[in-house]
């Protein structure tokens, strides 16, 4: 034990001096191997950095093995470098397998860049989301229905990847759905996990479309297991529903010339059958509720005109905008008078917000 420690001390503290340096240099294989290994150790981190490192170390050690076999004539040099070459090749095969396993189709890669990369969602989380939809892209032909009003059950959640889908109710156009928007986000949010329901609108493809879909039960299990994915879907669904509401508001603005508050109740009834002329004519033919008589000839006389408004200088300044009042007057000019047994198409008095 003391003899070995003494020899190690002598080797470290008092190394033997070289009697003479070699007069000739090593072969080209040795210098080429050294250069390749030097370049290999300059690689970075990550899977691509590892591919770069082991992709250069393997030929570098192979050149060392050739040098040990042809020039140095050392069996130990040949064996050790051959083992290092084999190790690098096995590591490259493992990295190639991981890279192929983690690769997603082109459609899912574009979806990640459009919706999840701006939110800095990790790739591992995104793969869990893609795995839930089985990495399958569904297709929808032109004029083909994705859902039919009152018939199609709400048993999935779908996201449009390409194309354009038209949403209608009772034959009345509501709005369009464009790529990277959910097809059925309002229906998904309207039901609890234990409830069942059917679509209240009809979704028809105007062009050839492609979409991905998550089965309802599998997606609920994923959201229950991972709270981060649940918050992610909640934010995406909330943003998607608000975009649909604003698209309805823009349609109202184009129709009546005034912007309406999207928080008004019965918003669809303003967009619905009241816009068709046939419905207006039917509403006019219905018997209206009798008005109370104030005299014998009150029914034949025209209604009294309202008094003229006071001057602008004497009117006090209003504390809130009168856009709701103007909107209601504009709607009344387009809609018929309320009749008995028929609910008004839009609220005539809305609470102050």
Report on the structure:
- It is a single chain.
- This protein has 353 residues and is of the alpha+beta class.
- It has 12 helices and 7 strands.
- The protein has helices spanning 2-13, 28-40, 46-70, 75-102, 106-116, 123-132, 185-190, 216-225, 227-256, 267-271, 277-285, 323-334, and strands at 138-140, 145-147, 156-162, 165-169, 172-177, 202-205, 209-215.
- The chain has a 4-stranded antiparallel beta sheet with strand order 2-6-4-5.
- α2 runs antiparallel to α3 (46-70) and α3 (46-70) packs antiparallel against α4.
- The chain is rod-shaped, with a radius of gyration of 38 Å.
Question: Summary?
Answer:
48% of the residues lie in helices and 10% in strands.
Structural class: alpha+beta
Q: Which shape, going by the Cα principal axes? A: rod-shaped
Q: Which sequence of SSEs, written as H and E, runs from N to C?
A: HHHHHHEEEEEHEEHHHHH
- Rg computed from alpha carbons, rounded to a whole number of angstroms: 38 Å
Report the total helices: 12
Seen as an oligomer or otherwise, the chain set is: single chain
Distance between the termini: 91 Å
Number of strands: 7
Largest beta-sheet characterization: 4 strands, antiparallel
Mean pLDDT: 75
How much helix, percentage-wise, in residues?
40-55%
């Amino acid at each position: 034990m003391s003899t070995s420690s003494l020899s190690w001390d002598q080797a470290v503290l008092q190394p033997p001096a070289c009697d003479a340096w070699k007069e000739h240099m090593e072969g080209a294989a040795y210098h080429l191997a050294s250069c390749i290994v030097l370049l290999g150790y300059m690689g970075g981190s990550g899977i691509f950095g590892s591919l770069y490192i082991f992709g250069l170390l393997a030929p570098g050690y192979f050149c060392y093995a050739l040098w040990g076999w042809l020039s140095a004539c050392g069996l130990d040099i040949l064996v050790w470098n051959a083992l290092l070459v084999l190790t690098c090749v096995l590591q490259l095969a493992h990295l190639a397998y991981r890279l192929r396993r983690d690769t997603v189709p082109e459609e899912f890669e574009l979806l990640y860049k459009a919706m999840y990369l701006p939110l800095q969602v990790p790739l591992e989380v995104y793969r869990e989301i893609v795995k839930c939809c089985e990495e399958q892209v569904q297709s929808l032909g032109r004029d083909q229905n994705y859902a039919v009003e009152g018939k199609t059950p709400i048993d999935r959640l779908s996201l449009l990847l390409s194309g354009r889908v038209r949403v209608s109710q009772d034959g009345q156009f509501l709005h369009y759905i464009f790529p990277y928007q959910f097809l059925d986000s309002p229906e998904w949010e309207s039901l609890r996990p234990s409830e069942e329901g059917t679509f209240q609108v009809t979704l028809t493809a105007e062009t050839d479309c492609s979409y991905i879909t998550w089965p309802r039960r599998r997606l609920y299990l994923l959201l229950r297991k991972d709270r981060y994915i649940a918050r992610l879907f909640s934010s995406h669904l909330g943003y998607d529903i608000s975009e649909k509401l604003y698209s309805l508001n823009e349609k109202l603005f184009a129709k009546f010339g005034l912007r309406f508050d999207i928080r008004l109740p019965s918003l669809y009834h303003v967009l619905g059958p009241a816009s068709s002329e046939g419905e207006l004519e039917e509403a006019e033919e219905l018997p209206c509720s009798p008005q109370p008589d104030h005299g014998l000839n009150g029914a034949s006389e025209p209604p009294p005109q309202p008094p003229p408004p006071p001057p602008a200088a004497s009117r006090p300044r209003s504390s809130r905008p009168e856009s709701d009042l103007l909107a209601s007057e504009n709607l009344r000019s387009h809609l018929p008078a309320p009749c008995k047994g028929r609910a008004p198409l839009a609220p005539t008095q809305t609470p102050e917000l």
